[in-house]
Design brief:
With 296 residues, the protein is α+β, with helices and mostly antiparallel strands. It is 43% helix and 12% strand. Strands 1, 2, 3, 4, 5, 6, 7 and 8 form an 8-stranded mixed sheet that branches. The chain starts with 10 loop residues before the first strand and ends with a helix. 42% of the residues are buried.
Length: 296
């Protein structure tokens, strides 16, 4: 079974929202039945198990099925890591998709937690500025319901203008002598509640940043490619000294910078295809240009 390459060493977790006419226990049984043949090839200590539970925010060592007030149901992964974690995610998504009653609509989303145990206030502020700056490109690979300010559960990170960026920088500067956690919490509060395209409130509980923008899906390629993009983006931005305010010289260059640089060819190809699917033809040719310039 092939899946997207995961070159990041960061931990990650995925929440998959969906709808179904089946009871939670029935979905649980069907999922475990679909995974049974996979488990036969694995060591018992490495079985992929799914358990249904009442709604909770606890991290488990197994996949958990819970109810979700905004959508219906939610399948939540344990903490995953590396290529093995990405392969497991791919297996479980395919098992979920095999259940005929499992569906998604505009009320569903994919939430990805990326481990940022190495976070500093400056790195986190850079991630916020980077996402806000590049939100038009990221919006272009999402359906209309997940773009701009169209969804109350994944609002824009912040306005990307000089006054707002200056206020964010001031938070970091004024709290330079304070504990990192305290300053990151101030940044999270500055951005508002957790219903942003990236959510920093998860740092308090899980030491993660949560990416909330992706639309609901049970397509393994879509989900694993988005997860890889989120992981690579954190890796890339955390190594950057600053986020330049100046815009790239062309739409293609902007797209290549986001989905090509420090990503990989499959990620770039996938997201150019998504942008064209949604009618953003200004990004056509980005893959070929990026490949010619060896940008990924």
């Amino acid at each position: 079974m092939t899946t997207i390459k995961n070159k990041s060493t960061r931990t990650f977790g995925v929440e998959i929202e969906f709808k179904s006419s089946n009871r939670l226990s029935t979905i649980n049984n069907k999922l475990n039945a679909a995974l049974a043949s996979i488990n036969e090839t694995r060591d018992p200590s490495n079985y992929i198990n799914v358990h249904h539970e009442s709604y909770n925010h606890h991290t488990r060592n197994h996949w958990k099925l819970v109810t979700d007030s905004s959508c219906g149901y939610e399948l939540v992964s344990p903490v995953l890591k590396g290529q093995e974690g990405m392969n497991e995610l791919n297996i479980v998504i395919n098992a979920l998709e095999s259940i005929p009653t499992v569906k998604v609509n505009k009320s569903c989303g994919i939430h990805v937690h990326v481990g940022i145990q190495d976070a500093t206030a400056k790195k986190v502020a850079n991630l916020v500025k980077y996402y806000a700056k590049n939100e038009p490109m990221i919006d272009a690979v999402m359906p209309r319901s997940r773009r701009s300010n169209n969804n109350m559960y994944c609002k824009p990170v912040m306005s990307y203008n000089k006054p707002t960026v200056k206020r964010l920088n001031k938070i970091v500067k004024d709290n330079a002598a304070n504990a990192c956690d305290s300053t990151i919490n101030k940044i999270a509060n500055f951005l508002g509640n957790r219903y942003n395209k990236i959510n920093l409130h998860s740092f308090r509980r899980y030491r993660t940043v949560e990416f909330r923008q992706h639309s609901g899906s049970v397509d393994a390629k879509k989900i694993t490619t988005w997860v890889a993009f989120c992981l690579n983006t954190v890796d890339k931005v955390f190594k950057m000294k600053a986020i330049q305010f100046a815009a790239p010289v062309s739409h293609q260059d902007a797209f290549i910078d986001v989905f090509g640089v420090k990503q990989n060819r499959k990620i770039m190809k996938h997201f150019e295809s998504r942008a064209l699917h949604f009618g953003f033809n200004i990004f056509a040719g980005s893959f070929d240009k990026g490949a010619a310039l060896r940008r990924f």
